[in-house]
Structure formats: structure tokens, C-alpha cells
Amino acid sequence: MESSTPVIVAIDGPSGTGKSSTSKAVAAQLGLSYLDTGAQYRAITWWMVTNGIDTADPSAIAAAAGKPEIVSGTDPEYPAITVDGFDVAGPIREQDVTSRVSAVSAVPEVRARITELQRTIAASAVTGIVVEGRDIGTTVLPDADLKIFLTASPEARAARRSGELKGTDLHATREALVKRDAADSSRKTSPLAKADDAVEVDTTDLSLHQVIECVVTLVEEKRAGR
Ligand code: DC
Predict the structure, then answer these.
(1) Which residue has its alpha carbon closest to ligand 1 atom 8?
(2) Distance (Å) from CA 124 to ligand 1 centroid
(3) Does the predicted model carry a pTM greater than 0.90?
(4) Residue of the CA atom closest to atom 18 of ligand 1
């Protein structure tokens, strides 16, 4: 592989491991595109909620999965996402979407649709791309040049999330995180999982800066070894 070939980096792991902050910073530092696949699942969930689809009914979700048009920006400095032309970057972070996204993203028709979108975006990245999610290294981009799996203790993850969502209760945040991880890890279609060839980085005792430096070094080593 020549050094001018686009580099594909897959970063997976549960929420609160620093995945988004790390992925964006690594992409910005190395001049790569960036794709937040969780935002895409949140966007399709937002559309279901907004259009009155019962998110507890997998067949209703499956029937509607092809309807919304989801467009993701790939600039790490300005991650943008629209659904049918509406900017949903704010609404997709709200609690009613967060509490339903695991159920919606477990539906195979939803995963097939979003996975296809993700592969198209990754294939069109000129210099390369950092793609963050839950199943990128295992399912979406199994041939990625570098696969990272970020982990952290539930306590550290809950503390980080509580810091992001000001005023939330730490215990409740931890419970909600553990519940969402269990749902994401146990679903039948492409669950949250570490690929056999992924490098696992435990971020519990690392600063964000240290995690970014670690991943940047791994990408640079990959590129140099080509
Ligand atoms: O990273 P996040 O918390 O924004 O992701 C929201 C949800 O989307 C997560 O609970 C599971 C789902 N998801 C997924 O199933 N596969 C991905 N590649 C990314 C996210």
C-alpha cells in the first residue's frame, strides 16, 4: 500500500470512553475526514420519534427505515448532520432520542441502511477517515487499516458523561450507560464488540490528551509501515 492511499481508522467502544473527542481530534490533527456513526443512528431515531413511529415495534421501524434522508458532514471541526434537510445536531442529543436509540439501532433494516451509507462515505474520503462507532471494525469496515477499541471503567464513563450533561445525577447516569451498553452488546445484528485485530486502549486513567497522542502515534506507525 502506498502512503498516498487513504488511511481508514475504525474507533469502537461504549459511550463515555472518550471516543468522539478522540476521533475528532485525531482526524483534525492528521487532516482526515471524520464520521460519527452514533449520530446517524440517533438521527434515524429522531425521525422515528418525530414521525410518530412506535419505537417499541421493530416491524414498524423496519417498514420506515428507508424513508428518512440522512446526510452526515465529515469535517472534524464542524460535525454536521441533517435529516430531510433539517439540522438535527442538537435534537439528536436529547433524552427521548438517547433512551430509544438502542432499540431502533437493533433493527436489521436500520443497520443495513446506515451501514451502506457509512461505507459510501468512507470510500469517498480522499486522504482517509476516522470512523467511530460500535461495529466499525467488526462489520462496517472489516478491512480498516487500523482498529482501536476504547474501554474505561463504568465509574469513569459515568463521571465523564455527567460532566458533559450538566446537572445530571451520577448514579442515574451510570445506570443508564450500563443499560444502553448491555442492549448494544447483546443485540443479534452487529453488536458492540472488539474486533480480533483491534488494539484495545483502556482510558480509565488516561487524560484525553494522552489517548489522542496514543492513537495518533498508532496511525502514524501504520502509515510509515506501508
Ligand atoms: O455513540 P452514541 O452514544 O452517540 O451512539 C448512540 C447509539 O447508537 C448507541 O447506543 C448504539 C448505536 N450505535 C450503533 O448501534 N452502532 C454504531 N456503529 C454506533 C452507534
Answers:
(1) 38
(2) 22
(3) yes
(4) 133
Is the Cβ atom of 105 under 6 angstroms away from ligand 1?
A: yes
Does 12 sit in the ligand 1 pocket, CB within 6 Å? no
- Whether residue 153 is contained in a domain is answered as yes
217-226 pLDDT, tens per residue? 999 999 888 6
In order of 82, 134, 180, the CA distances from 193 in angstroms are 28, 7, 14
CATH number at residue 122: 3.40.50.300
Angle at 208 between CA 71 and CA 134, to 5 degrees: 45
Domain count, the chain: 1
Q: Residue 4: pLDDT above 80?
A: no
3 CA to centre of ligand 1 in angstroms = 31
Residue-wise pLDDT for 53-104, tens only, equals 999 999 999 999 999 999 999 999 999 999 999 999 999 999 999 999 999 9
- Which atom of ligand 1 lies closest to the CA of 101? 7
Residue 5 to residues 149, 152, 175, 216, Cα–Cα distance (Å): 23, 32, 43, 17
Give the range of the structural domain holding residue 133, as residue numbers without chain letter: 8-216
Whether residue 2 lies inside any domain: the answer is no
